[in-house]
Amino acid sequence: MPYGCGVTKTSPATDHLRPAGRATRAAIEEAARTLFSTRGFEGASVRAIAAEAGVDPALVIRHFGSKEALFLRTVDTSLGIGSVLEGPVETVGRRLVAYFVDAERPAVRQRFVALAQAAHRDQVREEMVRHTAETYVAPLAPRLTGADRELRAALAVAQLAGLLNLLYVQEDPIITAADPATVVALYGDAIQGLLTPEAAG
Amino acid sequence: MPYGCGVTKTSPATDHLRPAGRATRAAIEEAARTLFSTRGFEGASVRAIAAEAGVDPALVIRHFGSKEALFLRTVDTSLGIGSVLEGPVETVGRRLVAYFVDAERPAVRQRFVALAQAAHRDQVREEMVRHTAETYVAPLAPRLTGADRELRAALAVAQLAGLLNLLYVQEDPIITAADPATVVALYGDAIQGLLTPEAAG
DNA sequence: GGGCTGAGTCAACGGCGTTGACGGTGTGAG
DNA sequence: CTCACACCGTCAACGCCGTTGACTCAGCCC
């Protein structure tokens, strides 16, 4: 479920809005981005987002339909993985892990945690599935060889999601305390073994 | 985060309770088990659990302290993995995956989903971490050879958690539709590669 | 100028987890 | 035997939540 490689969100049809409407809409979106990141999906209430944006809570719903819809429009499911996937397939395992284990990416961590927290909402779950298929499996599978390419790509995503879960959500002490380079080598190769069995170290 | 191999829950100190108290306590626990399983942590309200048990909502809190505490006492974090872990380490990867991919274990799926939904609560998260360390890493690590045994065991848990996440929570269509035997072979070997690199197929 | 549509306000709904004040009731000590 | 006390349960309410509907007001087009 890592969700990387995102396209810029296509805010649909704000043309019919008047300038005032577009401005408050943007204010709400920014407040939502901030609060969803810092407090998570459950911790960020519609009322708090409205207050942060200096706006009536009802207006938030009026503009975006529901908290879930606001979340989906606001928190980018992308975690910025595009460039990592573009490199050589033979070493993508370690590069993926290295990207996420890097401590200098708090925003990525925040977004993943928020996403994991909201995963039980139907629309969010659907978006996550769609995203996995579109930005992970689709670009990866054609570059693999052998049988079950799509399945192997999907299982590699599962591996990655599991690491991020223990690392970001559970904050597992063993993995957290471990030497990042070791984690990259061990887990990266485990992922690599699924993608290119013949090239795995 | 798979949480298996559980000991029977040690309900602490119900001796001081009168028969009536113990009975309604048991009724609440059973109702909670049912509703948490079928509706998840967020979907099962304290009020609904109380109604199912034929009891006042306030009584639920009075007996268990909070919804989160009731959840922890009620939903067994164990997923029944003990026997799987006891077998030979050289093939534990495939056996673990086979256990969870088996469609005939709906209760395990339900419990995992409920757990994942409640993972953002502090006490639940702590319990999950504790459980990972106690029932996965502790029995597994000493039976491994080579460097970083604890870390490798923890990373194997991460792999498993990732699979269950995509399989149970996200219901990823690719993995769901795939031949279970293939998933067992591919993912089982990926886990095995982390545990016993020399024995991996 | 008059209708229409977008923008914003306000009060309220039903639900949530939780609390506190308040009656009964069974048990053990005097 | 009685009386105090801890347990058991009830009830109404608190403050929060996401969401809705009725309403006002301003700007645009015909």
UniProtKB/TrEMBL annotation, chains A, B:
A Gene Ontology molecular function term of the record: transcription cis-regulatory region binding
Upper lineage: Bacteria, Bacillati, Actinomycetota, Actinomycetes, Propionibacteriales
Domain of life: Bacteria
Keyword DNA-binding appears in the UniProt entry: yes
Pfam families membership: TetR_C_16 (PF17920), TetR_N (PF00440)
Record keywords, A-Z: DNA-binding
InterPro entries per record: Homeodomain-like_sf (IPR009057), HTH-type_TetR-like_transc_reg (IPR050109), HTH_TetR (IPR001647), Tet_transcr_reg_TetR-rel_C_sf (IPR036271), TetR_C_16 (IPR041678)
SUPFAM superfamilies in UniProt: Homeodomain-like, Tetracyclin repressor-like, C-terminal domain
The protein, known as: TetR/AcrR family transcriptional regulator
Transmembrane portions of the chain: none
UniProt-listed PANTHER family: HTH-TYPE TRANSCRIPTIONAL REGULATOR RUTR (PTHR30055), TRANSCRIPTIONAL REGULATORY PROTEIN (PTHR30055:SF235)
